[in-house]
């Protein structure tokens, strides 16, 4: 009887590791699961309120942003929400950055922060 050299634990473990025959398939499935919607245009009143809020925030402020994230180069996407500290705000370039996420100010649907409490009390 012929004996084989003993297999190392690492080589033995490789036999049972998952095999991805279709690379990118899981990513494609996740994209398919997303509910893609068209971007909602804000009313003039909502846009004015957003502009007031943008003038109140500064680098380092904690905010929650609900924004439209375009899918690929289409006119549809999804609405995402991020909470974090403002790391960059460039009104002239229409850019707001929270941590590593850069958001076009044109794609912001809503902004929330404790900073806006006096503003929101006036409208209540």
Descriptive notes:
With 124 residues, the chain is of the alpha+beta class. It is built from four helices and six strands. Strands 1, 2, 3, 4, 5 and 6 form a six-stranded antiparallel β-sheet that branches. The longest helix is centred in the middle third of the chain and has 13 residues, at 44-56. The mean pLDDT is 84.
Count of helical stretches:
4
Shape: elongated
* Amino- and carboxy-terminal Cα gap: 88 Å
Q: How many strands in all?
A: 6
- Beta strand %: 25-35%
Q: Estimate the mean pLDDT confidence.
A: 84
Oligomer: single chain
Low-pLDDT stretches are: none
Helix content: 25-40%
The biggest beta sheet reads: 6 strands, antiparallel
Instruction: List the helices and strands in order.
Output: HHEHEEEEEH
Radius of gyration: 24 Å
> What would you call the structural class?
alpha+beta
């Amino acid at each position: 009887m012929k004996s084989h050299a003993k297999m190392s634990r690492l080589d033995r473990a490789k036999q049972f590791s998952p095999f991805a025959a279709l690379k990118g398939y899981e990513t494609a499935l996740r994209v398919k699961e997303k509910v893609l919607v068209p971007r909602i245009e804000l009313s003039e009143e909502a846009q004015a309120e957003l502009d007031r809020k943008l003038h109140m925030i500064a680098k380092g402020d904690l905010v929650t942003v609900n924004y439209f994230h375009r899918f690929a180069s289409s006119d549809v996407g999804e609405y995402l929400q991020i909470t974090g500290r403002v790391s960059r705000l460039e009104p002239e370039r229409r850019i707001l950055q929270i941590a590593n996420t850069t958001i076009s100010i044109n794609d912001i649907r809503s902004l929330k922060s404790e900073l806006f409490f006096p503003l929101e009390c006036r409208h209540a």
